[in-house]
């Protein structure tokens, strides 16, 4: 039963709202399974290819997993109808963005310092191609749910999924362009996504992630 106070403050907290909340939790659980495989295979491929963007993309899966866990926590039990739980989850997702941003920058600096250049690998191409297709679909679905639920935490997790898809596209482009001598595309993509992560962290912290 939905508390009267919650319905007054959040008119969307109806049967439809609760159904969307369950859908958000289910998508987050499915994402955790996906990310476990993606991170493991992506790291193996990235180390083999000496690709900072591929390694960064694979490790970003761990940050995405944290965001998914946060959303699962947010929509479990009595927290489902708790405004305080949404605030806590939203800020936790913001922190996960801020963990990703500095990692990408530091990893780029390290690889540039030691002279690593990305090399194409069959495993890396397969894993990133799958994420290029799947992650945007998950991200868009979560952002739509986040808007209906007025949940910046859910929308923020969806944004991280979209970033994962963007990183996959950048990694694939970087691996190909490196064969043409454009080695800088790979680290440039990672730095650009670090900037996006920092910006999205600010938006999530302020509760704006569900509105754009």
UniProtKB/TrEMBL annotation:
Source organism per UniProt: Nonomuraea pusilla
InterPro entries found in the cross-reference section: Cation_efflux_TMD_sf, Tmem163
SUPFAM superfamilies for this protein: Cation efflux protein transmembrane domain-like (SSF161111)
Alphabetized UniProt keyword annotations: Cytoplasmic vesicle, Endosome, Membrane, Synapse, Transmembrane, Transmembrane helix, Zinc
One cellular component term from this protein's GO annotations in UniProt: membrane
Protein name as it appears in the record: Cation efflux family protein
Compartmental location: Cytoplasmic vesicle, Secretory vesicle, Synaptic vesicle membrane; Early endosome membrane
GO molecular function, one term: monoatomic cation transmembrane transporter activity
Membrane-spanning parts: 27-48, 54-76, 88-109, 121-141, 162-185
Membrane topology, from the record: Multi-pass membrane protein
Lineage top rank: taxon: Bacteria
Similarity comment: Belongs to the TMEM163 family.
């Amino acid at each position: 039963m939905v508390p009267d106070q919650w319905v007054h403050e959040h008119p969307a907290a109806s049967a439809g709202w609760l159904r969307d909340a369950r859908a958000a939790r289910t998508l987050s659980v499915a994402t955790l399974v996906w990310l476990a495989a993606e991170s493991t295979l992506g790291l193996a491929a990235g180390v083999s290819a000496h690709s900072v963007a591929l390694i960064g993309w694979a490790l970003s899966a761990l940050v995405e997993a944290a965001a998914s866990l946060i959303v699962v926590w947010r929509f479990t039990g009595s927290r489902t109808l708790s405004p305080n739980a949404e605030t806590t989850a939203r800020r936790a997702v913001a922190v996960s963005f801020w963990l990703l941003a500095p990692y990408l920058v530091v990893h780029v600096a390290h690889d540039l310092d030691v002279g690593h250049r990305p090399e194409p690998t069959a495993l890396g191409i397969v894993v990133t191609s799958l994420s290029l297709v799947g992650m945007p679909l998950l991200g868009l679905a979560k952002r739509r749910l986040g808007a209906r639920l007025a949940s910046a935490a859910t929308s923020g997790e969806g944004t991280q999924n979209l970033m994962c898809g963007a990183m996959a596209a950048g990694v694939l482009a970087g691996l190909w362009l490196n064969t043409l001598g454009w080695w800088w595309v790979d680290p440039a993509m990672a730095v650009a996504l670090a900037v996006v992560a920092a910006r999205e962290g600010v938006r999530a912290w302020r509760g704006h992630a569900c509105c754009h």
